[in-house]
């Protein structure tokens, strides 16, 4: 609720005094920093470089890459034609759902290996070079046609905030000529971004999820009612960071400040204001070194407790229960950042940030919120599932933030 509703009948002097007090309270209350001392303190070093751990020469990589002409990279956007075939039937027994899964396994391209997926490791190593200040990853499992203006704003924010980042979007549907056309405006500006079809068999190899994935590919696991690719996205972000290290962000996250000063960090989505302890974590932003033991525990939990019927069970709830169970066990070096770091606004309140101010008091609220976010927030999760129907209004908090960090600013206010 905006400030003007509280002060509708106040006189000017009282209004000014109370408004000033409200701004001070807003900034102070939302800037409480949660510090997870039982776990660790943050390290300022950059993520471990993957080149120290691979045995593939640069010459071999480049030779391999020349064998992948752009025009041959999955010309057809396969996900456009089989999205409906990937949704399991509702309200059926687990036995019937497994039978359905075995019958439709051929439609789950994300599980398959081919000549393109087998180039995955070489393509990643060839893309991440010494000129990369930071290694970023995203995932995209939907059709390329759905990768729209909002998602591009998220990508652009990475390059606007960091001097020399490199971004790989793990996506079968964007690793096409259609996807190339979508990303071309960024490539034309010299930004290092590339869509790469992931090889899940390679990514899970020698991890706790290897056996689970092998059984899944044979149709011996229950995929659940939630679309399987959505749940696999939770696994992909874990195993790719485990293999290469770096920074993972969702495609509905707008970066406001450099993330390169963080290391082995995860963000709290909510916390108890009294005890200052987190109540739920989220996996929309993950910053971890290669082979970090906490990632290993996350992957193990995914394989042991996978449930495709419960939303969030294999994602935010997974990282929350693993770290809660970990407690004060020594030997792990990671930091839990407060909600203000990545999730300054909860999903059920995000709509307020999309609205332009319509009065002086609302304008004051917007300025106070912008000041708070600019000083204490690394980025803001837009909760696209809830906010995608909202238009970014000119002058709103989101509009102001994005306008300062966009590359192609013509599409900021496109819904």
TrEMBL record:
Check the record and name the InterPro entries matching this protein: A1-4-GlycosylTfrase_dom, GlycoTrfase_DXD_sugar-bd_CS, Nucleotide-diphossugar_trans, Put_A1-4-GlycosylTfrase_plant
Which residues belong to any copy of the Alpha 1,4-glycosyltransferase domain?
Answer: 288-411
What Pfam families does the record point to?
Answer: Gb3_synth, Gly_transf_sug
Q: Which domain of life is it from?
A: Eukaryota
Instruction: Return the protein name.
Output: Alpha 1,4-glycosyltransferase domain-containing protein
Q: Which organism is it from?
A: Clitoria ternatea (Butterfly pea)
